[in-house]
Amino acid sequence: MFLLGALSDEGSLGLREHLTQGCEHCLERVKEAARTVYLLSLSARPVSPGPKAKADLLRLLLKK
After folding, report:
1. Is 1 part of a structural domain of the chain?
2. What is the rounded CA–CA span in Å between residue 28 and residue 46?
């Protein structure tokens, strides 16, 4: 969840602080998860968004 940006800001900050303190066990788990996410991304077929999805995405990007 951390690597995918699905943690709350508090959870993400807490984990970052914990890793910064040097917990080798948790750091190794995050590295392992990163490798897994990377390998899974290689197995996905590229998909082009439909016109509505593309328009929705552009609308969200322009709001910021």
Report:
1. no
2. 30
Residues contacting 57, CB < 8 A, separation 6+: 49
Query: For residue 3, what are its two tokens?
Result: 């690597």
- pLDDT, tens digit (0-9, with 9 covering 90-100), for 10-26: 888 999 999 999 999 99
Quote the CA–CA distance of 20 and 7 in Å, as a whole number: 17
Whether the per-residue pLDDT at 52 is higher than 90: the answer is yes
Report in angstroms the alpha-carbon separations of 64 from 5, 46, 61. Answer: 18, 26, 6
Whether residue 40 contacts residue 4, with contact meaning beta carbons closer than 8 Å, is answered with no
Spatial separation of the C-alpha atoms in residues 34 and 29, rounded to whole Å: 9
Match 């999805």 to its residue by tokens: 53
- Does 4 fall in a domain? no
